[in-house]
Every structure is written in C-alpha cells, then in structure tokens.
Specification:
alpha+beta, five-stranded antiparallel beta sheet, 39% strand, 224 residues, Jelly Rolls
Length: 224
C-alpha cells in the first residue's frame, strides 16, 4: 500500500510541475551573453549595441573576472554580467506581453568589490516594469573588500501585466559615498508568467487518470 501511495504522490508532483515548466521568460539575453567580450581584464564594454538591452549612462557588459571584479570572482553561467556604474546608469528592455496576467520578475545582483581606486561602495538602484508603472522598489548592493569574491543575491517581485509592450528597467538612483562611481552587477534577469490556480487544477485533472492507472498496476503486482 505504501508503494501505491508513493506512486500516486509522485504522479501528483509531476502534475503540479508541468504547468510551471511550460512557461518561459519573455526577457531576451537575460544572462547578458551578448556581445561576447571574451575573457581577461579588459573584457568589458560601455553602452554596447546589438543586444535586446538598451544601455545608458555608465552601464555596460563585463566578463567576470576582469578589471570590474578583481580576485577570485565566481563567474556567472554565461561568463558575463551587466554593470551599473554611478548615478544615472541604466539598462532597460522592451518586451512584448502576449498574455495578460501575473508575471514574476527575478534577477541576481551583487556589489563591485573594492579596487585600488575605491569603487567598492553602496549602490541603490530602482527596478521597475512599465506600464503599469509597477516598481519593485530599490535594491542596495554593498561592495566587498578588495580581492573578495563576487557574491550574487537573488531578488524578485510580482507584477500584473496587460497584453502589449512593457519596459523592464534598472536605474541607479544613488551611490554612497555620493558623487562616486560605485557599481552594481546585474545577471539572470527573467520575466515569467505565473500560472493561475485554475491552470494547475486543469493540468492535474488531465493527468489524474495516469495516477490511477499507476496505482492499479502496482496494486495488481502486490496481489500477485
């Protein structure tokens, strides 16, 4: 009987997981792999083009490690991240929302480690999705000590979106000490639709006969 219950429970996990896995992010180049800057200390670029992102102010793409993060920085999946340097640094992307509903915006962030020039400080940036003008508030990064590894932290918030064009924006609002070019890293940006409860229930009902069949087969084997 325990085996039967385990089989049904396993089928239930698959049922619940299927609707979630069928939704993909509508963000392009969320890992900032374009343009490919290669590797090494000079593997970075300000305001790059040819990517889905628009860069403004002191923003760009850098490999890790490079001059932007000296020391044993843990490289991201693509080997590159976006950087926001100083007040007014901004990265944004225009995306197309095909289905109205609730979406989850998520990203990873880290502060730039201190360098001999003193760029390791606090950076506060605003994360917003417009329209409808929803803001996830501000995120503050703190630079680590010189030669420290870069440690990313994951953040996310929910936003209700209508069908049409939407802009995802990361904009530096302040740095500490004031007037400096302290920097933040951004990586793994994703904007993913969140399935409604009715969608999950529908998926469960569709696969319920599978769970029943598995239970019958295992019960027959146990009786035999």
């Amino acid at each position: 009987m325990n085996k039967i219950l385990l089989a049904v429970a396993a089928t239930g996990f698959v049922v619940v997981g299927l609707p979630m896995s069928s939704f993909a992010t509508i963000i392009h180049d969320g890992d900032f792999s374009v343009p490919n800057e290669g590797a090494g200390n000079t593997a970075y670029v300000y305001n790059p083009t040819g990517t889905a992102w628009t860069f403004a102010g002191g923003s760009g793409v850098t490999a890790l490690p490079s001059y932007w993060a000296e020391g044993p920085a843990a490289p991201p999946a693509s080997g590159q991240v976006a950087f926001l340097q100083g007040v007014g640094a901004d990265i944004s992307q225009l995306v197309t929302v095909g289905s109205a509903g609730t979406y989850l915006l998520s990203w990873d962030t880290a502060g730039r480690p201190a360098t001999p020039w003193g760029q390791g400080g606090n950076v506060t940036y605003t994360v917003s999705v417009t329209p409808p003008g929803t803001s996830g508030g501000t995120s503050t990064t703190t630079g680590a000590n010189f030669y420290s590894p870069v440690a990313f932290t994951a953040y996310s918030f929910l936003v209700n979106l209508a069908v049409g064009s939407t802009v995802v924006d990361f904009d530096v609002s302040s740095v500490n000490p004031a007037g400096t070019d302290e920097s933040a890293f951004i990586d793994n940006v994703s904007l993913t639709p969140v399935p409604e409860a009715s969608t999950i229930v529908s998926g469960a009902l569709m696969l319920l006969p599978l769970g029943v069949s598995v239970a019958r087969i295992m019960r027959k084997n146990l009786v035999a």
